[in-house]
Write a structure and sequence with these properties.
The chain is built from 6 helices and no strands. The C terminus is likely disordered. The two termini are 17 Å apart. By secondary structure, the protein is mainly alpha-helical.
């Protein structure tokens, strides 16, 4: 395994990060699938990114794509609500967006955690030795 790939996959986050991965991936995958019901809104990023988070595979790369997706969603759908209907209406409409954005940001920062394919591949790439931290 290359040092760059090892650093990308490595995570010292606890196994409990699995709960965040499950929450974030479930919402992204379900929202992405629902978008296929409406031809104008495709959910490819949400489905692929959500599935990668669910598996804990390439978690940081998936998180980056989903963060960008959520920033675009907020900018294009919630900022107009803020301008026309005010902060409280926008806050109500954006609650899921903010939660998903912060969940994806958390996974970008801490990685997939111990119960993930990223951790499995990292351990296999080091012969089972201790993993490097992302910050190292």
């Amino acid at each position: 395994m290359t040092p760059l790939l090892h650093r990308l996959l490595a995570s010292d986050a606890p196994a409990a990060v699995l709960l965040i991965r499950l929450l974030v991936s479930a919402v992204f995958v379900s929202e992405g699938i629902q978008k296929f019901l409406f031809p104008a809104d495709l959910g490819v990023v949400e489905i692929i990114g959500g599935l990668l988070l669910l598996l804990g595979l390439l978690t940081r790369l998936a998180a980056i794509a989903l963060i960008v997706d959520m920033c675009v969603a907020v900018a294009t759908t919630k900022i107009p609500i803020l301008r026309t209907d005010g902060v409280w209406k926008m806050a109500h409409e954006a609650r899921t967006d903010w939660s998903m954005l912060l969940g994806a940001l958390c996974l970008l920062l801490v990685g997939a955690g111990a119960w993930s394919l990223d951790a499995l591949f990292t351990r296999a790439g080091t012969g089972g030795r201790a993993r490097e931290s992302w910050q190292a």
